[in-house]
């Protein structure tokens, strides 16, 4: 039976040898850190085998084991070490091969291709990395598609704005030169030129304002001054602002809010978005047509719908209605007093800045644009009409005074 003293002597001797071998192995791993995983696994196996063999030799010497027994133990340990080396090399080669496949897939993605996960079974860590790369590739593809769409939209915007600026500027130059050179001398023509110059100047000012607003939206520089305001007030102001245009074109303009709904928004910006939608609807509605603006509550959101009688939008154009400078079919091409086709894009940017939603669909004899905005905290619950009851407005013939505050 081994005495406690012998056991202690063997233990600290073998422990000392193991520490020395482990330190040598750590140094080797540090020096070979940039080498393949197969090399690193081989070093780990070597540390295990060397520490075991050294321990066996020390035990044989300390315990006076016979040469025959010592050789037998060393042979068993050597065979086990060879098996360990073989397994380490095999695992290392498999992991290295999987890493090379993963690297090739990543390089292919970097050259502009799609990421294709390597075939075969990958170790858990590499499989997780491959799954993340696949997700990242999909996100990059979506971002690239958005960037290309945005770039196309920018080019289209530049083309539209260049045309819409060049045309009035050419007219202004011609009228100014005619007045300056004395080509036009009769008072009626001079008055007509002055009125036209004034209209074109106003149109260019509105276009520049739209461009500035759109640039702020795209740059994320739109600063909102939120306040609690009644949805009915916003609808009433939009109808009042659009009433002269509707009356001049002979379009019936109606509006109503089914209940008193407070929203927490920037009244100036949301009012601009509503005016853009109402003005757009009036411009594309023929004379004797109707534009209706309705406000109500739906699924915990304040909803405003603007319906016109434009005849509808082709289904393939619906997804692009809110794109910058998109004007669609000739039936919806703007008349000379319109802007650069930025109103709907601005409306979308304003609504989304308020964490709302905006959409369009064909309905009845025209289109229906819908804005959804979060209700203000403490708004009336669904179905509660509030103390003021129903609000209503009807411009171009019906008073808008019914849109009371909440």
Please tell me the CATH architecture of the largest domain by its name. 2-Layer Sandwich
How helical, in percent, are the residues?
55-70%
Determine the strand fraction and express it as a percent band: 5-15%
CATH superfamily of the largest domain: Histidine kinase-like ATPase, C-terminal domain
Number of domains: 3
Reading the helices and strands in chain order gives HHHHHEHEEHEEHEEE
Outline type = elongated
Largest sheet: 6 strands, mixed
Q: Give the strand tally.
A: 8
Q: What is the CA-CA span between the terminal residues?
A: 97 Å
| Spans where pLDDT lies below 50 across 5 or more residues | 329-337, 380-406
Radius of gyration: 39 Å
- By CATH reckoning, the class of the largest domain would read Alpha Beta
Predict the CATH topology of the largest domain: Heat Shock Protein 90
Which strand order does the major sheet show?
6-7-5-4-2-8
Number of helices: 8
Q: What structural category characterises the helix and strand content?
A: alpha+beta
Estimate the mean pLDDT confidence: 77
Describe the structure.
The structure is a single chain. With 406 residues, the chain is α+β, with helices and mostly antiparallel strands. It has three domains: 4-122; 151-218, Helix Hairpins; 227-393, Heat Shock Protein 90 (2-Layer Sandwich). Helix content is 58%, strand content 12%. It is built from eight helices and eight strands, in the order H-H-H-H-H-E-H-E-E-H-E-E-H-E-E-E. The chain has a six-stranded mixed β-sheet with strand order 6-7-5-4-2-8. A two-stranded antiparallel ribbon has the order 1-3. A hairpin with a 2-residue loop joins strand 4 (290-298) and strand 5 (301-307). Helix 3 (67-110) packs parallel to helix 4, helix 4 (124-181) packs antiparallel against helix 5 (187-218) and helix 5 packs parallel to helix 8. The longest helix is centred in the middle third of the chain and has 58 residues, at 124-181.
């Amino acid at each position: 039976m081994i005495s406690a003293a012998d056991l202690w002597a063997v233990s600290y001797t073998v422990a000392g040898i193991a520490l020395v071998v482990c330190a040598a192995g750590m140094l080797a791993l540090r020096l070979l850190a940039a080498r393949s995983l197969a090399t690193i696994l081989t070093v780990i196996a070597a540390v295990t085998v060397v520490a075991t063999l050294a321990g066996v030799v020390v035990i044989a010497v300390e315990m006076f084991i016979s040469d025959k027994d010592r050789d037998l133990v060393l042979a068993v340990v050597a065979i086990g070490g060879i098996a360990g080396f073989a397994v380490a090399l095999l695992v290392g080669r498999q992991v290295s091969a999987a890493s090379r496949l993963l690297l090739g897939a990543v390089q292919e993605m970097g050259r502009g291709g799609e990421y294709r996960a390597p075939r075969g079974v990958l170790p858990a860590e590499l499989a997780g990395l491959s799954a993340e790369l696949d997700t990242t590739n999909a996100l990059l593809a979506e971002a690239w598609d958005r960037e290309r769409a945005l770039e196309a939209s920018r080019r289209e915007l530049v083309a539209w704005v260049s045309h819409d600026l060049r045309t009035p500027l050419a007219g202004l130059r011609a009228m100014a030169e005619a007045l300056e050179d004395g080509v036009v001398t009769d008072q009626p023509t001079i008055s007509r030129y002055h009125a036209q110059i004034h209209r074109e100047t106003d149109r260019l000012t509105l276009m520049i304002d739209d461009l500035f607003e759109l640039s702020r939206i795209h740059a994320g520089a739109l600063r909102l001054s939120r306040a609690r305001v009644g949805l009915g007030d916003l609808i009433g102001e939009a109808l009042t602002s659009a009433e002269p245009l509707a009356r001049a074109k002979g379009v019936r303009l109606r509006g109503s809010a089914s209940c008193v709904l407070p929203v927490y928004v920037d009244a100036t910006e949301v009012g601009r978005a509503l005016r853009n939608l109402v003005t757009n609807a009036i411009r594309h509605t023929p004379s004797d047509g109707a534009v209706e603006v309705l406000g109500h509550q739906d699924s915990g959101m304040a909803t405003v719908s603007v319906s016109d009688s434009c005849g509808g939008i082709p289904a393939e154009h619906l997804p692009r209605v809110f794109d910058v400078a998109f004007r669609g079919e000739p039936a919806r091409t703007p008349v000379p007093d319109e802007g650069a086709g930025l109103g709907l894009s601005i409306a979308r940017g304003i609504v989304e800045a308020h964490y709302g939603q905006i959409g369009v669909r064909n309905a009845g004899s025209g289109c229906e644009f819908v804005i959804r905005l979060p209700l203000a905290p403490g708004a009336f619950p669904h179905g509660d009409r509030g103390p003021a009851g129903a609000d209503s407005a009807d411009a171009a013939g019906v008073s808008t005074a019914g849109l009371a505050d909440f």
